[in-house]
Design brief:
This protein is mainly alpha-helical. The chain has 30 helices and four strands. The protein has helices spanning about 30-40, 95-105, 110-115, 120-125, 125-135, 135-155, 155-180, 190-200, 205-215, 225-240, 245-260, 265-270, 275-285, 290-295, 300-305, 310-320, 325-340, 350-365, 370-390, 390-400, 405-415, 420-435, 440-445, 450-465, 470-490, 495-500, 505-515, 525-540, 540-550, 550-565; strands spanning about 5-10, 20-25, 45-55, 60-70.
């Protein structure tokens, strides 16, 4: 980052740990938002944002604290100053996955400016020369590495900066020199396997091949273009047989970095994506077979998680063939992180947001092979469910409902789709609030709707609540409320009197009463209890007993209703 002013985001994972640099951006609001988000998601015990101002006179950055929030730092006992231990002590060590990921964070804005990945920057001599020519960028990276290391070890920040600067200079010189020696091959599809076999004998084969891969990517700046260039080479290697898996992993490294980009999916798909659409694509990518299987059972999954096309479909085929394991792990980790964030999945539609979350949960749970994976997935969806039971989300969910009946149905649907006992309880509170509200009370007592229609509606709500796996105490309270409402409606119209005096045979009366006793025609509670009592009286009548004894088929038809009502065999 070459600008005279920028902002750095630091975090402490625990109160006792030291500050660690997370990111550097040129926008103050973005830096503060990033820090606040980390704190809200419990990804850090404390966060700090500093303003870094470059001094032309000294050639160094001066720091000013903009934000310091979270748990107070636990002071450690003084300890003797000790030499800082390098994560990377040689240029070769900068090319590990962990080091390259750190480079991507440190140079995030620089990489975005030139539209390249960290992999390209570290393998292309032209990019290295450009980076090295900007002394401010080099000094800035050295400082960002040195500050947390100095705080952790107590070593001199200037000594650590000099050491990092020397290592960066050595690494840059190496890449530039190797480029002038033509060490990096010009890869071709036709001669690819022969080129790979030739490189495989080199002591630094992944570095050499990496330079060739970076050359290929030079002609493209957009993520979709880069993938279109790389994938045919990966497919050729995948088809070439055993012994070249290491080369596939080299190609996989920049592909992982492409997918780590915040706007990469938008470019690949060719349209603006909200978070839910992006997670749907990533879920299809890492859980393709499971998504296909679940989609056959649940049409919502098929609609919400559409099949992949183009380069995404090509990557899915490679994953299903056993390649790109690191990419799969990286995307799976990102899915969990995004689910725990506070960003809306579908900002324009709360209904679609619930559908999307449900589809993601079904597919990701099906894809969880190990117990720890399933636990991580459950934790992520419980965290996401917190946003669904917030007042803002609930207000948006019910604001366009045309009736109290539709409102309560949506709230029960919410109960069915959130996970976590605390979230279930909060969802129940919203349902309970709606049930006792003036709007619902007015509509449920509206005489223009027939009593059987209203009772049947209450029975349907009660069944859904039973299936929603709610905490028992809260669920019972809701069921009792629905039962009491049903009893009030039944009392207003003298329901039991009408049911017992209705014309027809005893078998017809028995069938009608069993529907109420079993909770199908009215909610379980006082109405079902009264209907059950009437059924027991009717079963003792000679006419009903004779009919059941003489017609086994009629008895078999009534048996499921009798079992649902808790009535034993009619004898």
């Amino acid at each position: 980052m070459s600008g005279p002013i920028h902002y750095e985001v630091f975090a402490r994972k625990t109160p006792a740990s030291g500050w660690a640099l997370q990111s550097a951006v040129e926008n103050r609001e973005a830096a503060v938002a990033m820090a606040e988000d980390m704190l809200a998601q419990n990804r850090a015990a404390a966060v700090m944002v500093t303003k870094e101002v470059f001094s032309e006179g000294t050639g160094e950055f001066k720091s000013f604290t903009v934000l310091n929030k979270g748990a107070a730092e636990q002071k450690k006992k003084d300890r003797p100053t000790q030499p800082a231990e390098n994560i990377c002590g040689s240029p070769q060590e900068l090319y590990t996955a962990q080091a390259r990921e750190k480079v991507a964070r440190l140079l995030e804005d620089w990489l975005r400016r030139y539209r390249v990945t960290a992999f390209e920057m570290m393998h292309r001599p032209d990019l290295v020369e450009r980076f090295e020519a900007s002394n401010n960028d080099v000094q800035h990276v050295a400082q960002k590495l040195a500050v947390p290391e100095a705080q952790e070890t107590g070593a001199s920040i200037h000594e650590i900066m000099r050491r990092w600067t020397a290592l960066i200079d050595k690494a840059c010189t190496r890449v530039i020199s190797d480029g002038r020696k033509n060490l990096f091959p010009d890869l071709t599809l036709e001669g690819l396997t022969a080129q790979i076999d030739k490189i495989s004998g080199h002591p630094e084969k992944t570095y050499v091949l990496g330079g060739g891969v970076a050359k290929l990517m030079k002609s493209a700046t957009a993520p979709a273009g880069k993938l279109s260039i790389l994938l045919p080479f990966v497919q050729r290697l995948a088809e070439s047989g055993e012994g070249r898996g290491w080369a596939v992993q080299v190609f996989e490294a920049p592909i992982m970095e492409i997918f780590a980009g915040k706007t990469a999916l938008t470019d690949i798909v060719g349209q603006e994506l909200d978070l839910g659409s992006g997670l749907a694509i990533l879920t299809r990518l890492v859980a393709g077979p499971e998504a296909q299987m679940v989609a056959k059972i649940d049409p919502v999954v098929s609609r919400t998680l559409p099949e992949l096309t183009g380069v995404l479909a090509d990557i899915l085929k490679l994953i299903e063939a056993g390649h790109f394991k690191a990419l799969t792990a990286s995307v799976s980790k990102r899915l969990l992180v995004e689910l725990k964030s506070v960003r809306r999945l579908r900002p324009s539609s709360p209904v679609l947001e619930i559908e999307t979350l449900r589809a993601l949960a079904l597919v990701m749970t099906a894809a969880g092979k190990e117990q720890t994976q399933r636990e991580d997935i459950a934790e992520a969806f419980a965290e996401r469910s917190k946003t669904l039971v917030s007042s803002d989300f609930v207000d948006s969910l019910i604001k366009d409902t045309v009736s109290a009946f539709e409102e309560i149905e949506r709230l029960i649907w919410l109960c069915e789709n959130v996970v976590g006992s605390a979230n279930k309880r909060q969802a129940v509170r919203w349902v309970s609030s709606s049930l006792t509200g003036h709007r619902f009370e007015r509509e449920i007592r509206d005489a223009s709707k027939s009593a059987p229609t209203r009772l049947s509606f209450l029975a349907g709500l009660q069944k859904r609540l039973i299936r929603a796996e709610l905490p028992e105490k809260e669920a019972q309270e809701l069921r009792d409320k629905l039962g009491a409402l049903g009893a009030s409606i039944a009392s207003e119209v003298n329901l039991m009197m009408h049911l017992t005096r209705v014309g027809g045979s005893s078998m017809q009366k028995l069938t009608l009463l069993l529907g109420f006793a079993a909770g199908q025609s009215a909610p379980l509670g006082p109405v079902s209890d009264m209907a059950k009592a009437e059924v027991m009286k009717l079963l003792k009548s000679p006419e009903a007993r004779n009919h059941l004894m003489s017609d086994p088929a009629a008895f078999m038809q009534l048996k499921p209703l009798m079992q649902a009502a808790g009535i034993g065999a009619a004898a």
